[in-house]
Amino acid sequence: RTVYVNGEYLPEHEAKISIFDRAFLMADGVYEVTSVLDGKLIDFAGHAKRLERSLSELDMRSPVTTDELLEIHRELVRQNGIEEGLVYLQITRGAPGDRDFVFPDPETTEPTIVLFTQNKPGLADSPAAKKGMKIISIEDQRWGRRDIKTTQLLYPSMGKMMAKKAGADDAWMVEDGFVTEGTSNNAYIIKGNTIITRALSNDILHGITRAAVLRFAAEAQMKVEERNYSIDEAKEADEAFITSASAFVMPVVEIDGVALGDGTPGARAARLREIYLEESR
Ligand code: PDD
C-alpha cells in the first residue's frame, strides 16, 4: 500500500519517522479517521475542521492546507483503490534533536504528517450491525481534554481489552455515575422516540458522525435530548447505539449483561443507521 509521509507518497516499507518524534516519545500528536464509501470520503470537511481545532488547542500547526489535505486523502484512496475503508491522518509536533518536555521551537522543528488507508470491504454492510454490540461499563480514567483528538489512546485500548476479556465488544466509560462515551465512539440511549446523548464539553470527543446523526434525527421522527445519563438509566433504555467514522451507527443490545429490549438491534437504531448511510454517501 502507498502511504504519505511529509510530502512524499511511498510504499509503506519505505516510510520512515525519527525515533525522536514527539508522537513516539510523548503521544504529542493529533489524528483523524475519515471513512470512505463508494470510493468517496465521508464528511471530510467536518474532520478537517476538528483537526484544525485539535491543533490549535495544542498550539500546533498543520504543515499542509485543508485543500492539500483533501488532495492527499483523494490521492491515497485512488492509488490504493479503496472503495470502502478508512483514511488515517496523524500530525505530530515533529522530531526535535533530543527528548525534552519543553515544546520545540516551531521555527526549527517541522511537524510530522502521516496518512495511510485501511481497506475494509463490507464496512457499510457490516454483519456486526445486524448482531448488535455487547457493552461493559468501566470507569473513565482518561485525561480532562477528551475534546482534543490526541494519539494518547492507551486507556481506550485497555478498555477495549477489558471488554474483550469479559466477552463483550466494547466499553462505555463512566464518570461520576454518568456515561461519557465509548472507547472510540459516542454513546446514545433511546427512550420512546427520544435519542439521549451527553452534551458536548471537554469530557467527550465532538464526534463528526454524532453531529450528522443528530441532524438526521428529525428525518427518523425522533427528538434529541443532550444531557447526562447514568449507566443505570442506560440499562433500562429501550435501545442504545454508538457512532463513529468507522462504525457509522451501530446498535447496542446489551450493557453489563443486561439485555436491552429483546436483546436484538432495535428498529430505531437500525433506521438511524440506514438514514446515515443514505444521506452521507
Ligand atoms: N474514533 N469518541 C472517541 C473517544 C473517539 O475516539 C471517536 C472516533 C469518536 C467518534 O468520532 P467520529 O464520529 O468523528 O469518528 C468519539 C476513531 C474512529 C478512532 O479512534 O478510530
How far the N terminus sits from the C terminus, by CA atoms, comes to 24 Å
**CATH arch. level architecture of the largest domain:** Alpha-Beta Barrel
- Unreliable stretches (pLDDT < 50, length at least 5) are none
CA radius of gyration: 19 Å
Bound molecules: N-(5'-phosphopyridoxyl)-D-alanine
CATH class of the largest domain: Alpha Beta
Helix content: 25-40%
Q: Structural class given helices, strands, pairing?
A: alpha+beta
Strand/helix succession: EEHEEHHEEHEHEEEEHEHEEEH
List the helices and strands and how they pair.
Elements: E1 2-5, E2 8-11, H1 22-26, E3 29-37, E4 40-41, H2 44-57, H3 66-79, E5 85-92, E6 112-119, H4 127-131, E7 133-139, H5 154-165, E8 170-175, E9 178-182, E10 186-191, E11 194-197, H6 208-216, E12 223-226, H7 231-235, E13 239-244, E14 248-255, E15 258-259, H8 267-280
Describe it for me?
- The chain has 281 residues and is an alpha+beta fold.
- The chain has 8 helices and 15 strands.
- It has 2 domains: 118 residues, D-amino Acid Aminotransferase, Chain A, domain 1, CATH 3.30.470.10; 154 residues, Alpha-Beta Barrel (D-amino Acid Aminotransferase, Chain A, domain 2), CATH 3.20.10.10.
- The strands form 2 sheets. Strands 7, 8, 9, 10, 11, 12, 13, 14 and 15 form a 9-stranded mixed β-sheet that branches. Strands 2-1-6-5-3-4 form a 6-stranded antiparallel β-sheet.
- The protein is globular.
- It binds N-(5'-phosphopyridoxyl)-D-alanine.
